[in-house]
Amino acid sequence: MPTAPDGLSFCTTSDSVRLATCTRGQGPLIIKAANWLGNVQADAQLPSSRHWVDTLTRHHTLLWYDARGCGLSDREVDDVSLDAWVRDLEAVADASGQQRFVLLGISQGAAIAIRYAARHPERVRGLILYASFVRGVFHQGLTARTRAVFEEMVRLADLGWGHDSARFRQLFTQHLLAAAPPEVMAAYDEHHRHSVSGPMAARYMQAFYELDARIDAPQVRCPTLVMHVAGDPMILQREGELVASLIPGAQWLGVPGRNHLPLASDP
């Protein structure tokens, strides 16, 4: 994988999607599965994410990437689904040149990491899962009224993402970073507003809601740590507990807080 001076590289998936990746640090390899709307250029700079990049790269090599349809990766793609995201991870892992590594999965990145680990047990040394879920909201027994609310959010994403007004995106930012200072939320919004188009954001949300990796979790055979914030407003703690219950031998660690994404100020 040819690497630019800033750690930026590109690889291609089995279905011919070009992905942007970033590599930092030295030591044993950790690959972070993509989650939400990627922006590899922003992750090492934003106050909402640079702390975990800095911490993990002190003693490890960290490799992360923009998923299909996002950031510096190909924006126009045919397939947006859990299996497509696993193909992204397969391409990134193969391009790394490393045979074994730890996988980090945050939010829907956990389901991607779980399915990859189930399909490629010989390559995954361990899983670290944070704010994880393996079933989207459409598999959680919603009432018709609640389902209609989520379907309306998909429609609003199609119309409102990338708009000059930040009001729509703040609906999501306030769930991702519920207890973050205003300046942290504003920086996150500014860097991610152009990371994806409205139609692609809507397709992502629809795929999140339909995601189901429950069949994959019991097939994981590597050591697994499942962490979840007790007050996570985006993914309820019960979903993390379900993940831990489905993966054989998984270690559960509940942590206090209200942010879906981990901030430097969080425990």
What series of H and E elements makes up the topology?
Answer: EEEHHEHEHEHHHHEHE
Helix content: 25-40%
Mean pLDDT: 89
| Broad shape | globular
Q: How are the strands of the largest sheet arranged?
A: 1-2-4-3-5-6-7-8
Per DSSP, the total helix count is 9
Rg, alpha carbons: 17 Å
- What is the beta-strand fraction? 15-25%
The low-confidence runs, each spanning 5 or more residues with pLDDT under 50, are: 1-5
Care to count the β-strands?
8
Descriptive notes:
Strand 7, helix 9 (about 235-245) and strand 8 (about 250-255) form a beta-alpha-beta unit. The protein has about 270 residues and is of the alpha/beta class. About 45% of the residues are buried. The protein is globular and about 45 Å long. It is built from nine helices and eight strands. The protein has helices at about 40-45, 50-55, 80-95, 110-120, 145-160, 165-175, 180-190, 200-210, 235-245; strands spanning about 10, 20-25, 30, 60-65, 100-105, 125-130, 225-230, 250-255. Helix 5 (about 145-160) runs antiparallel to helix 8 (about 200-210). The N and C termini lie far apart (about 35 Å). It has an eight-stranded mixed beta sheet with strand order 1-2-4-3-5-6-7-8. Mean pLDDT is about 90; it is low at about 1-5.
